Structures are given as structure tokens and as C-alpha cells.
Known about the structure:
The chain is α/β, with parallel strands linked by helices. It has 12 helices and 17 strands.
Amino acid sequence: MRLLSGASDECEPEWCDSEDPLFILYTSGSTGKPKGVLHTVSGYMLYVATTFKLVFDYQPDDVYWCTADIGWITGHSYITYGPLANGATSVLFEGLPTYPDVSRMWEIVDKYQVTKFYTAPTAIRLLMKYGSEPVQKYNRESLKVLGTVGEPINPEAWQWYYSVVGEKRCPVVDTFWQTETGGHVVTLILSIVPAILNESGEELEGPCEGYLVFKQPWPGVMRTVYGNHQRFETTYFKKFPGYYVSGDGCRRDKDGYYWITGRMDDMLNVSGHLLSTAEVESALGEHAAVAEAAVVSRLHPVKGESLYCFVTLTDGVGFNRTLEAELKKQVREKIGAIATPDFIQNAPSLPKTRSGKIMRRVLRKIARNEQDLGDLSTLADSSVIEQLFLNRCCGAV
Length: 397
Ligand code: PRX
């Protein structure tokens, strides 16, 4: 109170140039070193404000709730800037969807009469495991639109979200976008002129599968990789000149719908968070016991994908539970809790090509226990494979 009485009611805004930097958010890069994605004042804010309004059909009497972490791009664009620029009434939530119990989300929806709800497939899959009873305990009649973001939503999760949460009344709006795009770029309502290209950069027509690119610029696209403009140009504009390259694969069906199939590079998506295998490998490699590490993804029923790490230990070091726990901790501390590996496998040798490149494709199959390894003619030493299958980490997570 004492402080308030002396404070002015007015706060002069800080005038900025439209192209002044607004914020830098770091995101994983396929080479391992995170990229500082730089967004600017006007284009970004205009874009998130508009997409928020149109994609969620925001109306002044809405109560909007996005469950994302505010430090992540979804929290920046669709908790902070987009809703605030529209003067929207929002629920801000810091906590877990399962604490104190698995009805938490629906209790909040009921309590605040939430109309527009935005979450990630990983949260839906997590809650789905507990069935419909915890959802049905609360009234969800206020809900009008259900949004999803961060990773491909599998049909079971979509059905559950649509039927159980939304009682088949609410449209499910899947929103595809990236830290780099600032806001939504493919949704059912609006899209930034997408195209699908083949490996030679030719645009494909009709039903097809290939690289997802965008043909036109939009106000919210990142302006540079902080401190490395060259990397910005190389990563997004070099492979297919004239297009923005998303790095994701995509299928178009006969009805013209786009289905995102996932990353085309060495990236993986754990609970809607993008991680690069290289980043995790280098965190493991910093441990004195590790000579070499190779990381691949393994499908996970809740997280979408999880980390499966193969480690070759330095001579004389034995593999045991203590080391395994230490390595997990190492990755967790270097990158974050989301990157904690689910599996660490001792790999006395890794499958490599004659030129010494690790064959991740083969490792991915071993992690998933798929015996059909495809063409192994470039493999330098095939005895490695049998050993790796024998040492596989089993067990469900
Ligand atoms: O692979 C795509 C996936 O998440 C990546 C972007 O991750 P990030 O920059 O962390 O931003 C996440 C929040 C926007 C994309 O390259 N992705 C994001 N949304 C979807 C998706 N994959 C499928 N469907 C989505 N709706």
C-alpha cells in the first residue's frame, strides 16, 4: 500500500521501431547447437493477435485457457502476446494436469467457465489413460473450441478429445506451427500457402508426401538466428530456394487435407518439445565415462517419442545402474527435465558405414525392436548388430 500511494497511474509506453527485436527464444537445431530465434515487435504481435482471434474465433465474452508453459513459444504467442493484444480474459495456470488429481483441468474449466481450451496431444494422451470418469465429473458445457498444438495428434487422442472432453459439440482445431513461425501457419481455418516438395524441389500436386514448405512470407516469421544470420538463411531458405523450409514431412490426402508426418531431420519430439539428437549426444559425451553416444527416438504411448541412447564407454569403464542414473542426470541437468532419457543402452560398438557415419536408421530399428533392418550393404561390421539386439533395453515406460 505504501508503495502504491507514491506510484503514478500512468506508464508511458516505450516507443519501438516495428522491426526492433521483441524477444529471442532458443530452440533446438539439428546440428546440436540451439538457435536463438529472434522475433520483432510489429510483425510478430500483429500475427499472433490475428491468428489468436481467427483460429480460436475469439469473442469478447470468451474465457480462454492455454495450458502451455509460458516460457515456451506457445506460452509467448498464445498465453501472453496474442490474448493480451486482444484484451482477452484468460486463465493462467502453473501446475500439473494430474495434481492434486487427474480431474484438475476439467475442474478449472468448470470453475472459470472456460470457452476456448488449447493444449497438447501429450497432455490428452496422459489424461486419456484414466478414462472418461474424471472428465465427466465436471461440467464442460461452457467449452466451444478445443485446440491442439506441438506434435501430430494420433486418431485415438483426437477421438477422445472430441468425444469425451468436447462431447462431440466442439470443433478440434489442430494448429501446426513452430518457434520460428511465431504463430499458427497451418490450421483448418487459415494457412500460409503451404506446398509439398519432392527431394528435387518440385512442387507436388494432389495426394502426395514430401517436404512441407511455405510459398509466401508472413508477418510473424522469425527475422534471424541471433548472432548468425547465415545460419538462418542456410537452415530455412537454402535447400529449396524461394520457399521457407519447415523441416517437417507432410502428406496431402485426396480431400486436400495436410497430415504432418514429423521431422525430416535428426530431431525428435518429446511431449511436444523439439529436441535434437545431437544436443543429447553432446550432453552424454561430456561425461568422462562416455566415448561415443548415439541417440534415437522410440515411440512412447504418452510422450509421442522418447529418448533411447546408445553409449560406448571409455576403455575400462563398466556399465551399471549407477552409471545409467548418472548419465540420465547429466542430460537432465545440461538440457532440461524434458530431455531425460528413458533408455540408456550399453553399446560396445555402434553400427557405422565404411566412412564412419553412425547408421541411426539401424539404431532406431533396434530401439523399436524391429528386425527388418533394410539395406545393410554400407555397414562396416555386421556383427555389431546382433550384440546390440542382445543388449536391448526392454520394458515399458
Ligand atoms: O515437428 C513439428 C511439431 O513441432 C515442431 C515445432 O516445435 P517448436 O518450435 O518447439 O514449437 C512447438 C509449438 C508450436 C514442428 O516442426 N509440431 C508443432 N505443431 C504440430 C507439430 N506436428 C504436428 N502437428 C502439429 N499441430
